[in-house]
Amino acid sequence: MNELDAAGITEPALRAAYTACRRINAHYGRTFFLATRLLPARARPAAHTLYGFARMADELVDNPSPGSDPAAELDRVAAMVDVVFEGGTPDDPVLVALSDTVRRYGLSRELFDAFLKSMRADLKPVEYTTFAELGEYMYGSAAVIGLQMLPVFGTVGPLADAEPGAIALGEAFQLTNFLRDVGEDLDRGRLYLPAAELAAFGVSRELLERRCPDPRIRAALAYFVARTRAVYRRAEAGVALLRPESRPCVRTALTLYEGILDEIVALDYDILTRRAVVPKRRRLVVALPPLAAVWASETFRGGRRLRS
Prior knowledge:
Keywords: Transferase. It comes from Amycolatopsis vastitatis. This is Phytoene synthase. One of its GO terms (molecular function) is squalene synthase [NAD(P)H] activity. The protein is mainly α. It folds into 2 domains: 1-110, Farnesyl Diphosphate Synthase; 125-277, Orthogonal Bundle (Farnesyl Diphosphate Synthase). It has helices at residues 3-6, 12-29, 31-36, 44-62, 70-85, 93-105, 109-121, 131-153, 159-180, 182-187, 195-199, 205-210, 215-237, 247-266, 280-301; strands spanning 126-127, 190-191. A two-stranded parallel sheet has the order 1-2. Helix 4 runs parallel beside helix 7 (109-121), helix 4 runs antiparallel to helix 8 (131-153) and helix 8 (131-153) crosses helix 9 (159-180). It is globular.
């Protein structure tokens, strides 16, 4: 069954808005889009939409159009979020779909305000001293994404019981991004890896900006990789609290995203001038078995028989 039909989305303009979000996820999402294929069909449009909203804001900050003002663009998005939570219809397809998703799943305004606050923090040069400081930023940039997705995934018990795992899920992915993109972020005037933790290994921002192999940088990055793996373990512990039909999606996303850490190690932590990427073959090896299971389940549930 078509995802939109499965979700009961029938109004043409709303279907077009959700389709636009799906295109954004398919274009940019890569790992996340592949994982969303494992969700029940009825849940996929909301997942595409939450990704689409986050990506839209992220692109305004990271890749602004020539001559545009990212701060003004974020203010425009915030104004449309106001419209969403006032029950109106925003003048943007992503926000139109978001408005419907917010109502369907009862998502909190605070989650979106916190996200936009962190996006605004990226408008100026970034450097964090401690993990405590970084944690405040990551609540808005990462933890709230996990919390937004939690009602879409569904839980087997009270939502609050699953929130720590959802927060860890967002943080694990975000910390992985910080490591994978450390070179690109330096180009944008940002350094998310806490300065005090780097200094413990004799690493400064200036040393990183030289982009030369250095045993001190390698040791620091190895430490950050190990620390991030511990966050993945916390996220994995929360998977059992999700509805069974959502678990393959989350497990696959965790496996694929942690695979980026494996690629960083395989590069011997030489990632200041190149990007660690999980090869397509590995992504398919991880995702195809659960995808086949989901496809077979949906096929039989729809009353169709498989033919040889």
